[in-house]
Amino acid sequence: MVVGDIATGTDVVVIGAGPGGYVAAIRAAQLGKDVTLVEKNAYGGTCLNYGCIPSKAFVTASSLAHDAGNAEEMGIHADPAIDMAAMTSWKDGVVDQLTGGVEKLCKANGVNLMEGTATFADENKVRVGHDGEGQGSESIEFEHAVVSTGSRPVQVPNFEFDGEHILSSRDALALDAVPESLLVVGAGYIGMELSTVFAKLGTDVTVVEMLDSALPGYEDDVARVVRSRAEDLGVDFHFGEAASEWEEMGEGITVRTENADGEVSEFGAEKALVAVGRSPVTDTIDLDAAGVETNDKGFIETDDRARSNVEHIYAVGDVAGEPMLAHKASKEGQVAAEHIAGEPAALDYQAVPAAVFTDPEIGTVGLTEAEAEEQGFEPVVGQMPMRASGRALSMNESEGFVRVVADEPSGFVLGAQIVAPEASELVAELALAIEMGATLEDVAATIHVHPTLSEATMEAAENALGHAIHTLNR
Ligand SMILES: Cc1cc2nc3c(=O)[nH]c(=O)nc-3n(C[C@H](O)[C@H](O)[C@H](O)COP(=O)(O)OP(=O)(O)OC[C@H]3O[C@@H](n4cnc5c(N)ncnc54)[C@H](O)[C@@H]3O)c2cc1C
User: Fold this and answer.
1) Where is the Pyridine nucleotide-disulphide oxidoreductase dimerisation domain (predicted)?
2) pLDDT category, 176, cuts 50, 70, 90?
3) What is the pLDDT of residue 131?
């Protein structure tokens, strides 16, 4: 069908159907708005299709294979064979189920779905281009718009993604054979998660990182636990090395790196995965036509209602800045929709949890001790090592700790840093504690099931109060 340039009207146009956009669209529709959600590629965005979900599917599958093959001390003797094509196809099934669910939920809530690429024509109109010969474009006039176009991987100069030798995280999550060796450029959370996955699948993994430590942004003692476990899995780290160029060499590649003194090193591998961060997709939607401004990093700056400098145009998720996380995108989408519908919604970033699905996992929320001090609190810290947790020991995963940071005079919980099995789940209790204004006493007085990992949270709070039972007190 030739669509031509037909103009339609809607209360709210949402551009991009990732966790920011589809949540905004559903919530606005629930609140009675006429909503059009435009997506150019796949419902669910990066998160469901190429990010959170596929990477976690591989985290699970690789851990299962690795644990089964390394459980001799538990009396289990197995040598699992990896069928990567089958693993990838299972992952695709999980993704399809979720993306299909998003589409159904949007329709069930009355959201009008439109496939195509949206760009602003002016501050009340977007143009949606449809792919394919003769498909043309159409215009949508809107009262409110939500920009949720997400992010793309940062490209290192000379390392253009080709899907064969130089992989993006998206390429790495679609392989049909386990690479014999992999050079990972970047030891941020995506690089570390995928290094762990491939090391567990039997790949010889080398990581080169420009900075001098893995997982920049996390405290040293947290990052150290993960790095040391990755080393046990065979990951070889080289810090202070910037990837500068590569060439094909036999069946694989040689990557050259340079340190701060200009010394060059060479690393051979079958493939390289480049994971050095992500940048916002704000340069392809003609924001200028709508008068929406971006900062020097390309992010759209927003207020606590998720509004851009143009009051009726909102920006949510990765385009609106760090932390680039799916749950932060969804919360912003929800607040934008509620504010558009006249509800008294506002954003509060005090308790945004973050997780890294390495081995062990990391879960953090709120303030570190140093940040608490900087902000004028008088922090007190309590910690429980996982080696003192009966459940962690019985899972044979006793590395790491739960740390709780609180304000000593008031007892209010301010933050937590967890590096432990299931840290991504454990952190939820402390996010709730911060959100509710709970004190150390509240957490310590809450009866936790024995034996569980979550007892470590109670014990860390008791430790901060000076009366932990299973660890020595400060
Ligand atoms: C490997 C990897 C693992 C990750 N793991 C996690 C994790 O475990 N937990 C977590 O919280 N986060 C994780 N993330 C980050 C997470 O994926 C993002 O923070 C999240 O997807 C951001 O959501 P969003 O809605 O802002 O954008 P996206 O999910 O990027 O969605 C944007 C959508 O907009 C569409 N779009 C772009 N331009 C246009 C246009 N002009 N017209 C129409 N549509 C358009 C795109 O096609 C896309 O579907 C991971 C990311 C990666 C890459």
Assistant:
1) 352-461
2) very high
3) 80
Please tell me the predicted confidence (pLDDT) of residue 422: 98
Q: From ligand 1's centre to the CA of 49, what distance in Å?
A: 9
**What is the spatial distance between Cα 460 and Cα 474, in angstroms, rounded to a whole number?**
11
pLDDT in the model for residue 7: 80
Q: Looking at the predicted structure, is the pLDDT value of residue 4 above 60?
A: no
Ligand 1 center–CA 45 separation, angstroms = 5
Instruction: State the pTM of this model.
Output: 0.96
State the average pLDDT for the chain.
Answer: 97
| Token pair for 67 | 């644990």
Task: For residue 317, give the ligand 1 atom closest to its CA.
Answer: 26
Q: What is the pLDDT of residue 2?
A: 46
Distance CA 257, CA 254 (A): 10
Widest pairwise Cα distance in the chain:
74
Q: Tell me the CA–centroid distance for residue 163 and ligand 1, in Å.
A: 19
In the chain, % of residues over pLDDT 90: 96
* Ligand 1 atom closest to the CA of 333, numbered from 1: 25
CA angle centred on 201, ends 391 and 251, rounded to 5°: 160
**For the chain, what is the total number of helices (H) and then of strands (E)?**
14, 22
Residue with token string 């699905």: 357
Half-sphere exposure of 253 (CA within 13 A, CB side): 21
The answer, yes or no, to whether residue 133 has pLDDT greater than 70, is no
In single-letter form, the type of residue at position 184 comes to V
pLDDT of residue 5: 65
Asked whether residue 6 carries a pLDDT value surpassing 90, the answer given is: no
Quote the distance between the C-alpha of residue 343 and its chain's center. Answer: 28
User: Catalytic residue numbers?
Assistant: 450
- Token reading at 165: 């030798």
- Burial code (b: 16+ CB inside 10 Å, e: under 16) for 255-280 equals bbbbeeeeeeeebebbbbbbbbebbb
Burial of 360 (0-12, 13-18, 19+ CB in 10 A): buried
Phi and psi for 424 in degrees, rounded to 5?
A: -65, -30
Q: What is the predicted pLDDT for the residue at 136?
A: 83
| Residue 196, helix vs strand vs coil | helix
pLDDT at 39 (0 to 100) = 98
Ligand 1 pocket (Cβ < 6 Å) reads: 15-21, 38-42, 45-47, 51-52, 55, 117-118, 148-151, 169, 190, 281, 284-285, 317-318, 324-327, 329, 357
